Amino acid sequence: MNTLALILSFGFVFAALILSKSFKLGLGKDLIITAIRATVQLLIIGYVLKLIFGFNNPFSIIVMLLVMIYVAARNAVKRAKGLQRITWKIFVTILIVEAISMSFMIGCKIIPATPQYIIPISGMIIGNSMVIASLYLNRLKADLHLRKQEVILRLSLGSTPKQAIFPIIKDSIRSSLIPTIESQRTIGLVQLPGMMTGQIVAGADPIHAVRLQLLIVFMIMSSAAFTGIILGLLIYPSLFNKYQQLEIEGWE
């Protein structure tokens, strides 16, 4: 894809702007900012990846992954305003999920230990974990306010904080996983995923592209489950004080 083709592709953005203005959707500013941010961020990361691929150094790969995880954690924490010490918990959750996924794939020689494989696939893991964390926190916050009295009742009847909060934690995890599970059900029938499409467009064997995409699908489903469960276990103690009383007043 040459520079001219890239410039012409902005025609899609202009079409969306025209539609937004015609129907008075008020999305013009957001569309422009999003398009500019996407262009700048992708161009920058393109040059950064070119440098890292050239170095082929484990240290540079680790630094890149840590930066990606930190940015993902900072973005997900917006859903947990008022909850104390949440950023590091999201960071640790995503870090653990990334470590488990990469250790398995590299250890089993499913992918080679090169930056060309590690960074793009890690980006999918981290990005998916970020979305799961956001969905989980959003659902948890809503359920805690709706079911606060249920938790207090369980505590008054002698339940431990874990026992009292577990039904809400379980429902929040299940709810956060639904979009991931549903999106995978029609894969290949309704949609052809980005990685598979990119490989086919680049001239790869469709069967090889399907095999790699299946790896990504299975990895995303497992990383989603790991994210929800680990984050749930790390967060629930913060919802109670030292007297085992539920404290969510500041979480708005």
The biggest beta sheet is recorded as:
none
Radius of gyration, in Å, reads: 21 Å
Q: Structural class of the helices, strands and pairings? A: mainly alpha
Approximate helicity band = over 70%
What would you call the quaternary organization? single chain
- Helix and strand succession? HHHHHHHHHH
> What amount of the residues lies in strands?
under 5%
Query: What's the number of helices?
Result: 10
Number of domains: 2
How would the global form be characterised? globular
Unreliable parts: none
Measured between the Cα atoms of the first and last residue, the distance is 46 Å
Please give the structural blueprint.
Layout lengths: L2 H7 L1 H12 L5 H28 L2 H19 L10 H21 L7 H32 L1 H9 L4 H25 L8 H8 L4 H30 L17
TL;DR?
This protein has about 250 residues and is mainly α. The protein is built from ten helices and no strands.
